[in-house]
Amino acid sequence: MFDCVVVGAGVFGSWTALRLRESGRSVALVDALGPGNAKSSSGGASRVIRLGYGGDEIYTRWALRSLVAWQELFARAGRPDLFQHRGVLWTARLGHPHGEGTLRAFRELGVAHETLSAADLRHRYPAMRCFEDAIGIFEPQSGALLANQAVQAVAREAERAGVEVTEGAVQAFAEEGRLERIATDGGRAIEGAQFVFACGPWLPKLFPRAVGRRIRVTRQPIFYFDAPGIDLPVWIDFTDPRGGYTIPPLAGKSFKLALDQHGAAFDPDAGSRSVTEEEAAAARALRSARAL
User: Fold this and answer.
1) What are phi and psi of 193, to 5 degrees?
2) Fewer Cβ atoms within 10 Å of its own Cβ: the N or the C terminal residue of the chain?
3) Of 189, 160, 155, 161, nearest to 33 (Cα)?
4) Is the sign of the CA dihedral 14, 44, 76, 164 positive or negative?
5) Among 109, 104, 118, 117, CA closest to 141
6) Is the distance from CB of 146 to CB of 251 less than 8 angstroms?
7) What is the per-residue pLDDT across 193-227, written as a single tens digit (0 to 9) for each?
């Protein structure tokens, strides 16, 4: 029997397993497709790591600690390249609550940042189109993680520390009484004194009564496009209601563009992961509007 069994080897599950093992507990880490797989919500080639969270200062505090933890782990693993130190640029219109809240939190916590006017933005990033009342907030400490590789690095570090990493989909269980064991589709039973479920969009399937109606899983497609000669940091744009953000070319990929909007309901196992014409048109419109 393990002291702790962690189900889900994405970013939360892998880090939880590592920290539990570092605390002296025996730990098993279970994932249907393995750490950093293509279907996981923390997989993919890249993810933004940022310090700005509007007025939610607690998230900025957590992000500061998280950035240090990632860099320390990458140094131990001999993979400092898994953090791409590109900086993060926010754009918002004057008076926007997220921009104002971010600046307050940065000043309160002493986070290094620059505030840029619309003229500053046009001068520094000539490929960018911005409104006359736009401001920029630049985080020089931040950037992007090579997401699937970074999660795999955490899981390998956990395994080196003694975590047992197992691949297998957890079968449904009763949502009542004390949970003492789980079973995988491979027929293995794993017993534990405590269980942590870090399953992201799969949680409603494992806990249909407890969280099935509390979590709504939706599509949020991403796009890659060529933009030769454009030099930009990670860019998050709050001047546009579509909530677009981009990540510069990394890990053999071209520019990444996504819209931070909830889409249609989505089944993480059976749902189509191909973009629709409507989604592609929205991405092209945003790219055109921002002059990329």
Assistant:
1) -80, -30
2) N
3) 155
4) positive
5) 109
6) yes
7) 999 999 999 999 999 999 988 999 998 889 998 88
pTM of the model: 0.93
Q: How far apart are CA 100 and CA 94, in angstroms?
A: 8
| Type of residue at 206 | L
Q: Of 204, 225, 209, give the one whose Cα is nearest residue 283.
A: 225
CB proximity list for 73: less than 8 A, separation 6 or greater: 153, 154, 157
**How many other CB atoms are there within 10 angstroms of residue 276's CB atom?**
13
Q: Cα(2)–Cα(213) distance, rounded to whole angstroms?
A: 31
Helical segments of 207-269, H only: none
Which is it for the CA torsion 74, 75, 79, 85, positive or negative? positive
251: left (phi over 0), alpha (psi -120 to 50) or beta: left
For the cut 70, the answer to whether the pLDDT of residue 291 exceeds it is no
**Domains of the chain: residue spans and CATH:** 1-45+146-216 (3.50.50.60), 84-142+218-292 (3.30.9.10)
Phi first, then psi, for residue 144 (nearest 5°) are -140, 150
Please give the pLDDT value at position 43: 84
Strand duo 234-237 + 88-93: pairing: parallel
Largest Cα separation within the chain, whole Å, is: 63
Residue spans of alpha helices (H) in 56-208: 57-77, 97-109, 118-124, 147-160, 203-206
Q: pLDDT tens, 158-170?
A: 999 999 999 999 9
